[in-house]
Amino acid sequence: MRIVIIGSTGTIGRAVVDALSGNHDIVRVGNRGGDFQVDISSTESIKMLYRNVGSFDALVCAAGQARFGALAKLADEDFSLGLNHKLMGQINLVRLGLEHINDNGSFTLTSGLLAREPMPGSAAISPVNAGLNGFARAAALEMPRGIRINVVSPIWVKETMEKLGMDTAGGMSAEDTARAYVESVEGSRNAEVLDVRDFA
Amino acid sequence: MRIVIIGSTGTIGRAVVDALSGNHDIVRVGNRGGDFQVDISSTESIKMLYRNVGSFDALVCAAGQARFGALAKLADEDFSLGLNHKLMGQINLVRLGLEHINDNGSFTLTSGLLAREPMPGSAAISPVNAGLNGFARAAALEMPRGIRINVVSPIWVKETMEKLGMDTAGGMSAEDTARAYVESVEGSRNAEVLDVRDFA
């Protein structure tokens, strides 16, 4: 399969590339690095990406910005970042990718644990992650030509926790996190939210 | 209690006013009718509403626009309407209302069944409704002064189905729908998504 991986230079994205590159042709996309660049908050940038990439069999998005912060301190811009980048960015990758993806292809997006298991500080992220889960379940009902769509819901990634100086005890390595993405791409699941804890 | 009801002239809102007005002081808010007017997609309009209303004990929002339509035909504006009006409009009612709501007050927002039970045509609504459920669960963790927050998730309202010429068999009357709102306002629930089918 020809697989486009958005966020291929990120912590999860690199692990997904590693897990899939042995068996597939990988198109690496980053916001600065990779074979192609994209700003997923811009529909023009996404359209240009697809024009340059051409047809493909699977798209994985492991990119998407959203802001963590105390509810009383979050600014309008903190909410709009998550909605425009992580939520609509990924929704638009699907909407605009539909005319480029091959029959029986698949989209795999990334939400996160905070959708269903919030914590103080996640008031601008939880709606974004929950929204992605809601979108994928709804959009799956209308996918043409045998195309599938799933969302992977990661927990904290150990490598990210290390960078932030956090205790990594409750986290999962990027390599283990990548297993849910491989399952979504290579398996037959559709309209599912894949909790990474079920595949590690 | 002094209860502010946004969307008080709508089908659900009127039923919520009827159910609560016997025991409480109701402030009716509409986009055109009611005691006060607000455009929830505008933070300036919300700020002016709160300046005019003053302090209150509970806020119920039964307003929020989002667009139904085939995924292949939904425009950017169809997604942004739901995100700016129904999702961020209700989130901003909470964010900006926090400085006006009394101790131990409550916020009750409205999402909908399509959050978890999508149908073809709900790709722009399901993320909004799911996002609202995610926001309330997260925001509840940071509410100060004993303030509660819940979301009511209605199914199709019979009166609305009648207007649209639909078979009302699977729907629920506005009066029955209002029971979940009363439970959220008068009870002690917090951080919950109240499925109207559990209270009718």
Overall structural class of chain A, as computed from helix and strand content, comes to alpha/beta
Portion in strands of chain A: 15-25%
General shape of chain A: globular
Which runs of chain A of at least 5 residues are low in confidence (pLDDT < 50)?
A: none
Number of strands of chain A: 7
The pLDDT mean of chain A sits at 97
Tally of alpha and pi helices of chain A: 6
Largest sheet of chain A: 7 strands, parallel
Oligomeric status: homodimer
Helix coverage percent of chain A: 25-40%
**Span between N and C termini of chain A?**
23 Å
Largest interchain contact: A-B, 40 and 40 residues
What is the element string of chain A, with H for helices and E for strands? EHEEHEHEHEHHE
User: How large is the radius of gyration of chain A?
Assistant: 16 Å
How is the largest sheet of chain A built, in terms of strand order? Answer: 3-2-1-4-5-6-7
Describe this structure in words.
By secondary structure, chain A is of the alpha/beta class. Chain A is 38% helix and 19% strand. Chain A has helices at residues 11-20, 43-53, 76-97, 126-139, 158-163, 174-186, and strands spanning 2-6, 25-30, 36-37, 56-61, 101-110, 148-153, 193-195. Chain A has a seven-stranded parallel beta sheet with strand order 3-2-1-4-5-6-7, sandwiched between helices. Chain A starts with a strand and ends in a 5-residue tail after the last strand. The model of chain A has no long low-confidence stretch (mean pLDDT 97). The A-B interface holds A 43, 70-72, 74, 76, 79-80, 83, 87-88, 91, 95, 98, 114-116, 118-123, 125-135, 137-139, 141-142, 144 and B 43, 70-72, 74, 76, 79-80, 83, 87-88, 91, 95, 98, 114-116, 118-123, 125-135, 137-139, 141-142, 144.
